[in-house]
Amino acid sequence: MPDPRTALELALSPSYRIERELGQGGMAVVYLAHDSKHDRRVALKVIRSDLTIPGAAERFSREIRLAAGLQHPHILSVHDSGRTGGHDGQGGQGGQGGQGGQEILWYVMPYVEGESLRERLNREGRLSVAESIRITREAAQALEYAHSQGVIHRDIKPENLLLTRDGSVLVADFGIARALAAAPASGSLTEAGMSLGTPAYMAPEQAMGDRPIDGRADVYALGVVLYEMLSGGPPFTGPSGLAIVARSMTETPASLSQSRGEVSAALDATVTKALARNPDDRFPSAQAFAAALEAGPGAAAPRTPWRWVAAVAIALALVAGFLLLRPSGTVTQSGIQLAVLPFENRGAADDAYFADGIADELRGKLAGLAGFRVTARASSDPYRGSPKSPKQIGRELGVKYLLSATVRWAKAADGTSRVQVMPSLVNAESGAITWQAPFEANLTDIFQVQASIAGQVAGALGAALEGGDQRRLEARPTANLAAYDLYLRVGAEKSTGLARLRKQVALLEQAVALDSTFGRAWALLSNDLSSLYENGAPDAGIGARALDAAERAIRFLPTSAAGYNALAEYHYGITRDAARAEAAIREALKYAPYDSYALGIAAKIQRQNGRFEDALTSLTRSHQLNPRSSGVLNVLQTTLLWLRRYPEALAYSDTLLARRPGDLSFTQDKAMAYVAQGDLASARALIAGLTPAHPDSEVAAYFSYYWDMYWVLDDGQQRRVLALGPDSFDGDRGAWGTTLMELSWLRGDSAGARAWADTSYRENRKLLVDAPNDAQRRILVGLALAYLGKKTEAIAEGERGLALSPLAKDKINGPYYQHQVARIYLMVGEPEKAIDLLEPLLKTPY
Known about the structure:
Elements: H1 4-12, E1 16-24, E2 28-35, E3 40-47, H2 56-68, E4 80-85, E5 103-110, E6 114-116, H3 117-124, H4 129-148, E7 161-164, E8 169-171, H5 176-181, H6 204-208, H7 216-231, H8 241-250, H9 256-259, H10 265-274, H11 286-295, H12 307-320, E9 336-340, E10 344-345, H13 352-367, E11 372-374, H14 377-380, H15 390-397, E12 401-411, E13 417-427, E14 433-436, E15 439-442, H16 446-460, H17 467-474, H18 481-490, H19 497-514, H20 519-535, H21 540-556, H22 561-575, H23 578-591, H24 596-608, H25 612-625, H26 630-642, H27 646-659, H28 664-676, H29 680-688, H30 696-705, H31 715-722, H32 733-746, H33 750-770, H34 775-787, H35 791-804, H36 813-827, H37 831-838
Parallel strand pairs: 9-11, 9-12, 10-12
Antiparallel strand pairs: 1-2, 2-3, 3-5, 4-5, 6-7, 7-8, 12-13, 13-14, 13-15
């Protein structure tokens, strides 16, 4: 009978050829192998043949499929897996089959040229504070993503954190610990690396095995790893696994700041919080742990609640060979998951906006309560009049409870109005009505009705309201019903694009004229003004109004996220001041950490600061809270596009266009993914398919101006652009002149290009009078000068514009501006300088 390695080589040939052993541990042996099909070196991990856990093979196969679906820059992906040998003689994937006998479980990963964190710690003992924090943050990003996909690692330790040659972290062995952890716990603590994980890194609740665990167990393990990187050893050691677990349940880790002077008290407190015995006292997520490390908060040391006295008893009983029962825990970290569905309007058709407004108000009040996770409106609205069952809706939105209602607004001839609301709270899993009650009041008492409904819903779900909660529920957005009516009508506006923004601004300005203290209206007004500035011609007056509205919103709503969201949008889109934008969004998230909108803004700012992976994490959290939001998915799609992860970006484009067929922005994003891969034909076919849903002129104008995609249009569409007037560009004559200048040059009409360049120059110069620090318009002035052959002036304007928003300061707009200045250098005959500007963009998300 061949030895185990020979048997493995026979079983996996010709798909994989084993070159040498890389290492082995308690569960598996890792080989360096050659993947014949793809001609690449891979790491082949083989689960030990003497690992006798009932059902391990089935669990391994199931969980490795789950792990293979994890795609993240800091996760070591799974290429392939299978099982060979066994009494049935059937081979695994890619293999020829064994010769009977012991079954072999295996999986294939990329071969990483680098080392494990364990190897580095063995060599250096401990790491610098900055390096320890960086490694922990990158691993936390991977764990946050995995947790969002329903996967818990369960065996985080230095051996499973790989460091590439450039120092980047890859988390390995996803799925393996989880697969084996499903086995009976008998004897599992007698050897490191067995079914429950590794004792030195196991969270107490994981070691006890008497309750389901969640992502906070991985937070604990990562906290142990950080402690070890800083101190040179884990917080608890002992002669056996049982002894280590007992110490983790009865002792407090030694202070890091006392043993190592470079460790601040704030960092010491952060590590201690991650190592809290009670999962409720740890950081609620890997992302929160990473954020605390980045911010350096002076978090207080965790308290030891009474129920963990029982946990100590359990630890001692485990060591003695006994098992005690522990009191059940409190509500899980995930909280009360609720969706407020669109309310049914039983009054006049024109009153539908009012029913939507009541639903929105209740959504906001419930979202402000501690422990509630409320789905955003964009995800709830698609279920208006849906025939789907509560169970289907709950499953699609990821919530346990659904709140719906009927609303009737009855207006009497004498001018008085009464509102009837019949809300119903439904358990989505069972379809049973948990709570229902009728409400009727004069219109003047509508805010009290909303507060009563929210309070009774919270009570029906077992939430205990504190004084602050009750005050938030009873808070009125405005004392002026006419102003409130105008505010609600904003959500009912049916026009699109810049026209919609202008109509919304008009309604909101009327609302704040009626009530100058209407904070929520000021916040929404600021958002719309910022969007109007960013998407239209720059207007210093609009920018000033946006800032004033945001500051008023903060003044009237100092403990609400709304004003800070607006201020963050202002600095992101108008001043391009990433530091101020980030400071504002931090304040917003302090008051609304589970606000999908705020998380979306945070992601945009993180991209602007060049932290694209952090942006993906924020977007993942936002998507969880707002799973049906096209806006969140669109930012996610464009982030992947900029990261050049084109297949993923295209997949999100398909999802977006399935929801909103013919959307010009979504279609352009998909076309950009095609051309980025060199597929011009597919991009043109996609654009051609937009008509007759949109007029040819609208499609031609959109693609010719935004992202300078005039060159992607076919000959017929280009001719249409040349026939367009400034109205097709929302009256922006600078945009009109620039587009026709570029397109004329592309088509060989140099005289026409120069004529249009003159128009572009004059019109964009006019806009700079009111917005002299608008980087894009200044660069466009430089580009027009380049087409006019005025080399010195063109370079000066282009460089001046680039200095206003350089790549180092703004990772979203900076690359585009640098790209345009490179075009200026090409036009004036300086190709080497153009290449100097273009080369860094190949290494930058863009």
